[in-house]
Amino acid sequence: MLDVLGGVIDWFQNPANWQGEEGLTNRLVEHLLLTGTATLAAVLLGLPLAIWLGHIGKGGFLAVNISNIGRAIPTFAVLTMLSIGAVGTADFGPYGRAGLATLISLLLFALPPIITNAYVGLREVDRDTVEAAKGMGMKGTQLLRRVELPLAMPLIVTGVRLAVVQVWATATIAALVAGPGLGRIITLGFRRQDVSEVVAGALVVAVIALVLEALMVLMQRYLDPVARARRTARLSKRMKAPAVAAAK
Amino acid sequence: MVLSEATPVGDNCMVRNEWICPEYLTSRAGLLTDAMVQHVWITVVSVVIGLVIAVPLALLARRYPKLEGVVVGTTTAIYTIPSLALFALLVPLSGLSAATVIAGLALYSLTILVRYIVEGLNGISADVIEAAQGMGYGARRLLLTVELPLALPSVMAGLRVAFVSTVALTTVGSIVSYGGLGNLLLEAVNTQFKPQVFTASVLCVLLAFVFDLLIVGTQRLMTPWARTRAV
Protein backbone atom coordinates (compact mmCIF):
# COMPACT_ATOMS: atom_id res chain seq x y z
CA MET A 1 0.00 0.00 0.00
CA LEU A 2 2.79 2.42 0.98
CA ASP A 3 4.75 1.34 -2.11
CA VAL A 4 1.84 2.43 -4.28
CA LEU A 5 1.60 5.77 -2.49
CA GLY A 6 5.32 6.43 -2.91
CA GLY A 7 5.10 5.41 -6.55
CA VAL A 8 2.20 7.79 -7.14
CA ILE A 9 4.07 10.69 -5.55
CA ASP A 10 7.11 9.87 -7.69
CA TRP A 11 4.87 9.76 -10.75
CA PHE A 12 3.56 13.26 -10.09
CA GLN A 13 7.06 14.58 -9.43
CA ASN A 14 8.43 13.30 -12.72
CA PRO A 15 8.19 16.20 -15.20
CA ALA A 16 8.19 13.76 -18.13
CA ASN A 17 4.71 12.61 -17.07
CA TRP A 18 3.34 16.14 -17.46
CA GLN A 19 4.69 16.96 -20.91
CA GLY A 20 3.79 16.15 -24.47
CA GLU A 21 0.60 14.92 -26.08
CA GLU A 22 0.37 11.96 -23.70
CA GLY A 23 1.27 14.10 -20.67
CA LEU A 24 -1.02 14.99 -17.77
CA THR A 25 -1.31 18.69 -18.75
CA ASN A 26 -2.57 17.98 -22.24
CA ARG A 27 -4.94 15.22 -21.10
CA LEU A 28 -6.30 17.46 -18.35
CA VAL A 29 -6.99 20.27 -20.83
CA GLU A 30 -8.71 17.82 -23.20
CA HIS A 31 -10.80 16.43 -20.37
CA LEU A 32 -11.85 19.87 -19.12
CA LEU A 33 -12.67 21.01 -22.66
CA LEU A 34 -14.73 17.88 -23.32
CA THR A 35 -16.67 18.16 -20.07
CA GLY A 36 -17.22 21.90 -20.42
CA THR A 37 -18.30 21.81 -24.05
CA ALA A 38 -20.54 18.75 -23.72
CA THR A 39 -22.31 20.07 -20.64
CA LEU A 40 -22.69 23.56 -22.07
CA ALA A 41 -24.15 22.19 -25.30
CA ALA A 42 -26.51 19.96 -23.33
CA VAL A 43 -27.62 22.95 -21.22
CA LEU A 44 -28.20 25.10 -24.32
CA LEU A 45 -30.16 22.35 -26.05
CA GLY A 46 -31.97 20.75 -23.14
CA LEU A 47 -32.81 23.56 -20.71
CA PRO A 48 -34.93 25.77 -23.00
CA LEU A 49 -36.85 22.71 -24.19
CA ALA A 50 -37.43 21.36 -20.67
CA ILE A 51 -38.34 24.77 -19.23
CA TRP A 52 -40.80 25.43 -22.02
CA LEU A 53 -42.38 21.96 -21.65
CA GLY A 54 -42.59 22.48 -17.89
CA HIS A 55 -44.13 25.92 -18.34
CA ILE A 56 -46.89 24.73 -20.66
CA GLY A 57 -47.19 21.44 -18.72
CA LYS A 58 -46.89 19.13 -21.71
CA GLY A 59 -44.57 16.32 -22.77
CA GLY A 60 -44.12 15.17 -19.19
CA PHE A 61 -43.98 11.49 -20.07
CA LEU A 62 -41.08 12.06 -22.43
CA ALA A 63 -39.26 14.50 -20.15
CA VAL A 64 -39.38 12.13 -17.19
CA ASN A 65 -38.71 8.90 -19.07
CA ILE A 66 -35.78 10.21 -21.07
CA SER A 67 -33.69 9.67 -17.92
CA ASN A 68 -34.75 6.05 -17.63
CA ILE A 69 -34.05 5.41 -21.28
CA GLY A 70 -30.71 7.21 -21.14
CA ARG A 71 -29.62 5.08 -18.21
CA ALA A 72 -30.16 1.89 -20.20
CA ILE A 73 -27.97 2.98 -23.11
CA PRO A 74 -24.28 2.38 -22.38
CA THR A 75 -22.19 5.43 -23.27
CA PHE A 76 -19.45 3.03 -24.31
CA ALA A 77 -21.77 1.53 -26.95
CA VAL A 78 -22.75 4.97 -28.29
CA LEU A 79 -19.10 5.97 -28.37
CA THR A 80 -18.00 2.88 -30.31
CA MET A 81 -20.85 3.28 -32.79
CA LEU A 82 -20.00 6.94 -33.41
CA SER A 83 -16.26 6.40 -33.59
CA ILE A 84 -16.36 3.65 -36.20
CA GLY A 85 -19.35 5.18 -37.93
CA ALA A 86 -20.41 8.63 -38.98
CA VAL A 87 -17.98 10.78 -37.01
CA GLY A 88 -14.84 8.69 -37.01
CA THR A 89 -11.71 8.93 -34.90
CA ALA A 90 -9.99 11.77 -36.74
CA ASP A 91 -8.50 14.60 -34.70
CA PHE A 92 -10.98 17.30 -33.75
CA GLY A 93 -9.05 20.47 -32.98
CA PRO A 94 -7.98 20.81 -29.35
CA TYR A 95 -10.31 17.95 -28.40
CA GLY A 96 -7.85 15.45 -29.81
CA ARG A 97 -8.30 12.09 -31.49
CA ALA A 98 -11.92 10.89 -31.70
CA GLY A 99 -12.84 14.23 -30.14
CA LEU A 100 -16.10 14.69 -32.03
CA ALA A 101 -17.36 11.16 -31.29
CA THR A 102 -16.57 11.66 -27.60
CA LEU A 103 -18.24 15.07 -27.51
CA ILE A 104 -21.47 13.83 -29.05
CA SER A 105 -21.64 10.76 -26.77
CA LEU A 106 -21.11 12.94 -23.71
CA LEU A 107 -23.67 15.49 -24.90
CA LEU A 108 -26.26 12.72 -25.27
CA PHE A 109 -25.29 11.42 -21.85
CA ALA A 110 -25.70 14.87 -20.23
CA LEU A 111 -29.14 15.63 -21.68
CA PRO A 112 -31.40 13.31 -19.60
CA PRO A 113 -30.57 14.59 -16.08
CA ILE A 114 -30.77 18.20 -17.27
CA ILE A 115 -34.13 17.76 -19.01
CA THR A 116 -35.79 15.64 -16.32
CA ASN A 117 -34.75 17.83 -13.39
CA ALA A 118 -35.67 21.10 -15.09
CA TYR A 119 -39.06 19.76 -16.13
CA VAL A 120 -39.84 18.34 -12.69
CA GLY A 121 -38.57 21.55 -11.09
CA LEU A 122 -40.99 23.67 -13.09
CA ARG A 123 -43.94 21.34 -12.55
CA GLU A 124 -43.33 21.22 -8.82
CA VAL A 125 -43.58 24.95 -8.33
CA ASP A 126 -46.40 25.39 -5.84
CA ARG A 127 -49.64 25.72 -7.86
CA ASP A 128 -51.11 28.20 -5.34
CA THR A 129 -48.12 30.48 -5.88
CA VAL A 130 -48.63 30.32 -9.63
CA GLU A 131 -52.35 31.05 -9.20
CA ALA A 132 -51.53 34.01 -6.94
CA ALA A 133 -49.10 35.38 -9.53
CA LYS A 134 -51.75 34.99 -12.22
CA GLY A 135 -54.25 36.75 -9.98
CA MET A 136 -51.80 39.62 -9.72
CA GLY A 137 -51.98 39.90 -13.50
CA MET A 138 -48.77 38.08 -14.45
CA LYS A 139 -48.85 36.07 -17.59
CA GLY A 140 -46.72 34.08 -20.02
CA THR A 141 -43.07 34.95 -19.96
CA GLN A 142 -43.41 37.26 -16.98
CA LEU A 143 -44.82 34.45 -14.86
CA LEU A 144 -42.07 32.15 -16.11
CA ARG A 145 -39.26 34.63 -15.51
CA ARG A 146 -40.31 36.06 -12.16
CA VAL A 147 -42.07 33.18 -10.42
CA GLU A 148 -41.57 29.75 -11.97
CA LEU A 149 -37.88 29.95 -12.92
CA PRO A 150 -36.59 31.30 -9.60
CA LEU A 151 -38.58 28.73 -7.63
CA ALA A 152 -37.50 25.88 -9.92
CA MET A 153 -33.86 26.97 -9.79
CA PRO A 154 -32.66 24.49 -7.12
CA LEU A 155 -33.80 21.48 -9.17
CA ILE A 156 -32.59 22.96 -12.45
CA VAL A 157 -29.13 23.40 -10.96
CA THR A 158 -29.28 19.88 -9.48
CA GLY A 159 -29.76 18.54 -13.01
CA VAL A 160 -26.78 20.51 -14.31
CA ARG A 161 -24.72 19.39 -11.31
CA LEU A 162 -25.48 15.72 -11.96
CA ALA A 163 -24.66 16.20 -15.63
CA VAL A 164 -21.30 17.92 -15.00
CA VAL A 165 -20.06 15.35 -12.50
CA GLN A 166 -21.27 12.37 -14.50
CA VAL A 167 -19.86 13.72 -17.76
CA TRP A 168 -16.53 14.40 -16.08
CA ALA A 169 -16.34 10.86 -14.74
CA THR A 170 -17.66 9.22 -17.91
CA ALA A 171 -15.31 11.10 -20.24
CA THR A 172 -12.60 8.65 -19.13
CA ILE A 173 -14.30 6.00 -21.27
CA ALA A 174 -13.05 7.79 -24.39
CA ALA A 175 -9.72 6.10 -23.70
CA LEU A 176 -11.27 2.76 -24.68
CA VAL A 177 -11.50 3.97 -28.29
CA ALA A 178 -8.05 5.58 -27.97
CA GLY A 179 -9.78 8.96 -27.64
CA PRO A 180 -8.89 12.07 -25.65
CA GLY A 181 -8.89 12.88 -21.96
CA LEU A 182 -7.53 11.64 -18.66
CA GLY A 183 -8.71 8.09 -19.25
CA ARG A 184 -5.69 7.72 -21.51
CA ILE A 185 -3.35 8.06 -18.51
CA ILE A 186 -5.19 5.15 -16.90
CA THR A 187 -5.16 2.92 -19.99
CA LEU A 188 -1.52 3.81 -20.72
CA GLY A 189 -0.52 2.82 -17.20
CA PHE A 190 -2.62 -0.28 -17.60
CA ARG A 191 -0.79 -1.31 -20.77
CA ARG A 192 2.60 -0.60 -19.20
CA GLN A 193 1.49 -2.46 -16.04
CA ASP A 194 2.48 0.66 -14.12
CA VAL A 195 0.24 0.71 -11.03
CA SER A 196 1.46 4.16 -9.97
CA GLU A 197 0.39 5.65 -13.28
CA VAL A 198 -3.06 4.02 -13.13
CA VAL A 199 -3.60 5.25 -9.57
CA ALA A 200 -2.32 8.74 -10.42
CA GLY A 201 -4.72 9.05 -13.36
CA ALA A 202 -7.69 7.75 -11.37
CA LEU A 203 -6.81 10.04 -8.48
CA VAL A 204 -6.77 13.16 -10.66
CA VAL A 205 -10.18 12.28 -12.15
CA ALA A 206 -11.75 11.44 -8.78
CA VAL A 207 -10.40 14.48 -6.91
CA ILE A 208 -11.50 16.92 -9.60
CA ALA A 209 -14.92 15.23 -9.71
CA LEU A 210 -15.32 15.93 -6.00
CA VAL A 211 -14.17 19.54 -6.50
CA LEU A 212 -16.72 19.98 -9.32
CA GLU A 213 -19.44 18.54 -7.11
CA ALA A 214 -18.53 20.93 -4.28
CA LEU A 215 -18.44 23.94 -6.64
CA MET A 216 -21.85 23.07 -8.03
CA VAL A 217 -23.31 22.69 -4.53
CA LEU A 218 -22.03 26.19 -3.72
CA MET A 219 -23.55 27.56 -6.91
CA GLN A 220 -26.81 25.83 -6.07
CA ARG A 221 -26.90 27.50 -2.67
CA TYR A 222 -26.18 30.86 -4.25
CA LEU A 223 -28.92 30.49 -6.89
CA ASP A 224 -31.66 29.26 -4.55
CA PRO A 225 -33.92 32.29 -4.00
CA VAL A 226 -35.56 30.87 -0.88
CA ALA A 227 -32.24 30.18 0.83
CA ARG A 228 -30.97 33.57 -0.29
CA ALA A 229 -34.02 35.33 1.10
CA ARG A 230 -33.47 33.54 4.38
CA ARG A 231 -29.83 34.66 4.45
CA THR A 232 -30.81 38.25 3.75
CA ALA A 233 -33.47 38.08 6.43
CA ARG A 234 -30.91 36.86 8.92
CA LEU A 235 -28.54 39.64 7.93
CA SER A 236 -31.15 42.35 8.23
CA LYS A 237 -32.24 41.02 11.60
CA ARG A 238 -28.67 41.40 12.74
CA MET A 239 -28.55 44.96 11.42
CA LYS A 240 -32.07 45.59 12.71
CA ALA A 241 -33.97 48.73 11.81
CA PRO A 242 -31.80 50.29 9.07
CA ALA A 243 -32.13 47.27 6.79
CA VAL A 244 -35.91 47.34 6.99
CA ALA A 245 -35.89 51.02 6.17
CA ALA A 246 -33.59 50.36 3.24
CA ALA A 247 -35.89 47.65 1.95
CA LYS A 248 -38.72 50.14 1.74
CA MET B 1 -13.39 -20.00 -32.25
CA VAL B 2 -14.95 -22.41 -34.71
CA LEU B 3 -16.39 -20.77 -37.77
CA SER B 4 -19.78 -22.19 -38.54
CA GLU B 5 -20.69 -23.81 -41.84
CA ALA B 6 -22.57 -20.65 -42.72
CA THR B 7 -19.24 -18.85 -43.00
CA PRO B 8 -19.44 -16.68 -46.07
CA VAL B 9 -17.40 -17.21 -49.15
CA GLY B 10 -18.52 -14.34 -51.25
CA ASP B 11 -20.64 -11.31 -50.72
CA ASN B 12 -22.72 -10.79 -47.59
CA CYS B 13 -23.43 -8.11 -45.01
CA MET B 14 -20.44 -9.09 -42.87
CA VAL B 15 -18.06 -8.70 -45.78
CA ARG B 16 -19.74 -5.42 -46.71
CA ASN B 17 -19.37 -4.38 -43.04
CA GLU B 18 -22.98 -3.23 -42.64
CA TRP B 19 -24.45 -2.15 -39.29
CA ILE B 20 -27.53 -4.34 -39.49
CA CYS B 21 -26.51 -7.85 -40.36
CA PRO B 22 -28.71 -10.91 -39.72
CA GLU B 23 -25.93 -13.21 -40.92
CA TYR B 24 -23.71 -12.00 -38.12
CA LEU B 25 -26.45 -12.84 -35.63
CA THR B 26 -26.84 -16.41 -36.93
CA SER B 27 -23.19 -17.23 -37.55
CA ARG B 28 -21.94 -15.84 -34.22
CA ALA B 29 -24.84 -16.96 -32.07
CA GLY B 30 -22.50 -18.90 -29.75
CA LEU B 31 -20.17 -15.96 -29.25
CA LEU B 32 -23.10 -13.64 -28.54
CA THR B 33 -24.69 -16.07 -26.09
CA ASP B 34 -21.45 -16.46 -24.15
CA ALA B 35 -21.06 -12.69 -23.90
CA MET B 36 -24.69 -12.28 -22.78
CA VAL B 37 -24.35 -14.99 -20.14
CA GLN B 38 -21.24 -13.32 -18.75
CA HIS B 39 -22.97 -9.94 -18.84
CA VAL B 40 -26.00 -11.24 -16.95
CA TRP B 41 -24.16 -13.08 -14.20
CA ILE B 42 -21.74 -10.23 -13.56
CA THR B 43 -24.68 -7.82 -13.33
CA VAL B 44 -26.78 -10.03 -11.05
CA VAL B 45 -23.94 -10.93 -8.67
CA SER B 46 -22.87 -7.28 -8.41
CA VAL B 47 -26.34 -5.92 -7.62
CA VAL B 48 -27.09 -8.73 -5.15
CA ILE B 49 -23.84 -8.09 -3.27
CA GLY B 50 -24.64 -4.38 -3.34
CA LEU B 51 -28.08 -5.05 -1.88
CA VAL B 52 -26.76 -7.35 0.85
CA ILE B 53 -24.40 -4.59 2.03
CA ALA B 54 -26.86 -1.74 1.47
CA VAL B 55 -29.63 -3.04 3.74
CA PRO B 56 -27.63 -3.12 7.01
CA LEU B 57 -25.98 0.20 6.09
CA ALA B 58 -29.37 1.83 5.56
CA LEU B 59 -30.67 0.38 8.83
CA LEU B 60 -27.61 1.72 10.66
CA ALA B 61 -28.07 5.13 9.06
CA ARG B 62 -31.64 5.21 10.27
CA ARG B 63 -30.85 3.96 13.76
CA TYR B 64 -28.13 6.57 14.25
CA PRO B 65 -29.20 9.76 12.45
CA LYS B 66 -25.70 11.18 12.84
CA LEU B 67 -24.45 8.39 10.60
CA GLU B 68 -26.93 9.18 7.85
CA GLY B 69 -24.96 12.17 6.58
CA VAL B 70 -21.73 10.17 6.62
CA VAL B 71 -23.26 7.22 4.77
CA VAL B 72 -24.94 9.36 2.12
CA GLY B 73 -21.83 11.55 1.74
CA THR B 74 -19.46 8.61 1.34
CA THR B 75 -21.70 6.89 -1.15
CA THR B 76 -21.91 10.11 -3.21
CA ALA B 77 -18.13 10.30 -3.21
CA ILE B 78 -17.87 6.71 -4.46
CA TYR B 79 -20.26 7.47 -7.29
CA THR B 80 -18.01 10.26 -8.59
CA ILE B 81 -15.13 7.81 -9.13
CA PRO B 82 -15.19 6.90 -12.83
CA SER B 83 -15.82 3.20 -13.51
CA LEU B 84 -12.71 2.91 -15.67
CA ALA B 85 -10.61 4.33 -12.84
CA LEU B 86 -12.30 2.16 -10.21
CA PHE B 87 -11.70 -1.05 -12.14
CA ALA B 88 -8.11 -0.03 -12.81
CA LEU B 89 -7.60 0.78 -9.13
CA LEU B 90 -8.92 -2.63 -8.09
CA VAL B 91 -6.61 -4.52 -10.43
CA PRO B 92 -3.63 -4.56 -7.99
CA LEU B 93 -5.97 -6.15 -5.42
CA SER B 94 -7.91 -8.67 -7.47
CA GLY B 95 -6.07 -8.92 -10.79
CA LEU B 96 -7.57 -9.29 -14.26
CA SER B 97 -10.59 -11.18 -12.99
CA ALA B 98 -14.35 -10.97 -12.84
CA ALA B 99 -13.96 -10.12 -9.14
CA THR B 100 -12.47 -6.76 -10.10
CA VAL B 101 -15.50 -5.81 -12.17
CA ILE B 102 -17.96 -7.23 -9.63
CA ALA B 103 -16.36 -5.36 -6.71
CA GLY B 104 -16.56 -2.09 -8.61
CA LEU B 105 -20.12 -2.58 -9.81
CA ALA B 106 -21.27 -3.76 -6.36
CA LEU B 107 -19.91 -0.51 -4.92
CA TYR B 108 -21.91 1.53 -7.42
CA SER B 109 -25.13 -0.43 -6.81
CA LEU B 110 -24.58 -0.05 -3.10
CA THR B 111 -24.50 3.74 -3.39
CA ILE B 112 -27.74 3.77 -5.36
CA LEU B 113 -29.54 1.27 -3.12
CA VAL B 114 -28.61 2.82 0.25
CA ARG B 115 -30.33 6.06 -0.75
CA TYR B 116 -33.52 4.43 -1.92
CA ILE B 117 -33.74 2.19 1.17
CA VAL B 118 -33.16 5.09 3.58
CA GLU B 119 -35.75 7.12 1.68
CA GLY B 120 -38.23 4.25 1.80
CA LEU B 121 -37.78 3.73 5.54
CA ASN B 122 -38.01 7.45 6.28
CA GLY B 123 -41.19 7.70 4.25
CA ILE B 124 -43.14 5.36 6.54
CA SER B 125 -45.77 7.25 8.49
CA ALA B 126 -44.95 7.55 12.20
CA ASP B 127 -48.57 6.70 13.01
CA VAL B 128 -48.22 3.25 11.43
CA ILE B 129 -45.10 2.52 13.48
CA GLU B 130 -46.75 3.78 16.64
CA ALA B 131 -49.80 1.64 15.99
CA ALA B 132 -47.64 -1.46 15.55
CA GLN B 133 -45.72 -0.66 18.71
CA GLY B 134 -49.00 -0.15 20.54
CA MET B 135 -50.02 -3.63 19.43
CA GLY B 136 -46.89 -4.96 21.10
CA TYR B 137 -44.61 -5.38 18.08
CA GLY B 138 -40.95 -5.72 19.01
CA ALA B 139 -38.19 -4.09 17.01
CA ARG B 140 -37.44 -7.12 14.84
CA ARG B 141 -41.07 -7.98 14.11
CA LEU B 142 -41.76 -4.32 13.37
CA LEU B 143 -38.90 -4.24 10.89
CA LEU B 144 -39.73 -7.49 9.12
CA THR B 145 -43.51 -7.32 8.99
CA VAL B 146 -44.24 -3.59 8.88
CA GLU B 147 -41.30 -1.42 7.88
CA LEU B 148 -39.64 -3.52 5.17
CA PRO B 149 -42.90 -4.30 3.33
CA LEU B 150 -43.86 -0.62 3.41
CA ALA B 151 -40.41 0.40 2.17
CA LEU B 152 -40.60 -2.19 -0.60
CA PRO B 153 -41.79 0.10 -3.42
CA SER B 154 -38.85 2.42 -2.78
CA VAL B 155 -36.42 -0.51 -2.56
CA MET B 156 -37.73 -1.90 -5.84
CA ALA B 157 -37.40 1.52 -7.49
CA GLY B 158 -33.77 1.50 -6.31
CA LEU B 159 -33.24 -1.98 -7.71
CA ARG B 160 -34.57 -0.89 -11.09
CA VAL B 161 -32.09 1.97 -11.24
CA ALA B 162 -29.28 -0.23 -9.94
CA PHE B 163 -29.90 -3.06 -12.41
CA VAL B 164 -30.35 -0.86 -15.44
CA SER B 165 -27.25 1.24 -14.76
CA THR B 166 -25.19 -1.82 -13.86
CA VAL B 167 -26.06 -3.48 -17.17
CA ALA B 168 -24.75 -0.39 -18.94
CA LEU B 169 -21.64 -0.09 -16.74
CA THR B 170 -20.67 -3.75 -17.09
CA THR B 171 -19.51 -2.93 -20.64
CA VAL B 172 -16.62 -0.92 -19.17
CA GLY B 173 -15.39 -4.12 -17.51
CA SER B 174 -13.95 -4.95 -20.93
CA ILE B 175 -10.79 -3.16 -19.77
CA VAL B 176 -10.05 -6.31 -17.73
CA SER B 177 -11.70 -8.57 -20.34
CA TYR B 178 -14.74 -9.20 -18.14
CA GLY B 179 -17.24 -6.84 -19.70
CA GLY B 180 -19.75 -9.27 -21.21
CA LEU B 181 -21.06 -7.62 -24.37
CA GLY B 182 -18.53 -4.84 -23.76
CA ASN B 183 -15.75 -7.26 -24.72
CA LEU B 184 -17.35 -7.61 -28.14
CA LEU B 185 -17.58 -3.81 -28.44
CA LEU B 186 -13.94 -3.28 -27.55
CA GLU B 187 -12.80 -6.02 -29.89
CA ALA B 188 -14.86 -4.61 -32.75
CA VAL B 189 -13.56 -1.06 -32.28
CA ASN B 190 -10.09 -2.23 -33.13
CA THR B 191 -11.21 -4.09 -36.24
CA GLN B 192 -13.89 -1.49 -37.20
CA PHE B 193 -16.38 -4.35 -37.44
CA LYS B 194 -19.77 -2.65 -37.61
CA PRO B 195 -22.16 -5.66 -37.36
CA GLN B 196 -20.60 -6.65 -34.03
CA VAL B 197 -20.76 -3.13 -32.54
CA PHE B 198 -24.39 -2.68 -33.53
CA THR B 199 -25.56 -6.13 -32.40
CA ALA B 200 -23.75 -5.95 -29.06
CA SER B 201 -25.12 -2.44 -28.40
CA VAL B 202 -28.70 -3.44 -29.17
CA LEU B 203 -28.44 -6.59 -27.05
CA CYS B 204 -27.12 -4.52 -24.17
CA VAL B 205 -30.08 -2.13 -24.26
CA LEU B 206 -32.50 -5.07 -24.61
CA LEU B 207 -30.94 -6.72 -21.58
CA ALA B 208 -31.51 -3.56 -19.53
CA PHE B 209 -35.17 -3.46 -20.51
CA VAL B 210 -35.65 -7.15 -19.71
CA PHE B 211 -34.20 -6.60 -16.23
CA ASP B 212 -36.46 -3.59 -15.76
CA LEU B 213 -39.55 -5.55 -16.78
CA LEU B 214 -38.63 -8.45 -14.50
CA ILE B 215 -38.30 -6.14 -11.49
CA VAL B 216 -41.57 -4.36 -12.22
CA GLY B 217 -43.24 -7.78 -12.48
CA THR B 218 -41.71 -8.96 -9.22
CA GLN B 219 -42.85 -5.81 -7.51
CA ARG B 220 -46.42 -6.36 -8.64
CA LEU B 221 -46.30 -9.87 -7.24
CA MET B 222 -44.74 -8.78 -3.96
CA THR B 223 -47.03 -5.83 -3.26
CA PRO B 224 -50.55 -7.15 -3.90
CA TRP B 225 -52.01 -4.40 -1.72
CA ALA B 226 -50.87 -1.76 -4.22
CA ARG B 227 -52.86 -3.51 -6.93
CA THR B 228 -56.10 -3.82 -4.99
CA ARG B 229 -55.88 -0.17 -4.05
CA ALA B 230 -55.52 0.83 -7.67
CA VAL B 231 -58.72 -0.94 -8.70
Summarize the structure.
The complex is a heterodimer of chains A (248) and B (231). Chain A has 248 residues and is mainly alpha-helical. In chain A, 78% of the residues lie in helices and 0% in strands.
Give a description of the structure.
By secondary structure, chain A is mostly helical. In chain A, 78% of the residues lie in helices and 0% in strands. The longest helix of chain A is centred in the N-terminal third of the chain and has 33 residues, at 24-56. Chain A is globular and about 70 Å long. The termini of chain A are far apart. Helices cover 78% and strands 0% of the residues of chain B. Chain B is built from 10 helices and no strands. Chain B has helices spanning 22-27, 29-63, 65-79, 83-94, 98-122, 126-134, 139-170, 181-191, 194-222, 224-230. The mean pLDDT of chain B is 88. Classes of the chains: A mainly alpha (248), B mainly alpha (231). Chain A binds chain B through residues 4, 68, 71-78, 80-81, 83-85, 165, 169-173, 175-177, 183, 186-187, 189-190, 195, 198-199, 201-202, 205-206, 209-210, 213, and chain B through 19, 76-77, 80-86, 88-89, 91-92, 161, 164-165, 167-169, 171-172, 174-175, 182, 185-186, 188-189, 192-194, 197-198, 200-201, 204-205, 208-209, 212.
Question: Which secondary structure elements does this structure contain, and how are they paired or packed?
Answer:
The complex is a heterodimer of chains A (248) and B (231).
Chain A: H1 2-13, H2 24-56, H3 60-72, H4 75-84, H5 99-123, H6 127-135, H7 140-170, H8 183-191, H9 195-223, H10 225-239, H11 241-247
Helix pairs in contact in A: 1-9, 2-5, 2-7, 3-5, 4-5, 5-7, 7-9, 8-9
Chain B: H1 22-27, H2 29-63, H3 65-79, H4 83-94, H5 98-122, H6 126-134, H7 139-170, H8 181-191, H9 194-222, H10 224-230
Helix pairs in contact in B: 2-3, 2-5, 2-7, 2-8, 3-5, 4-5, 5-7, 6-7, 7-9, 8-9
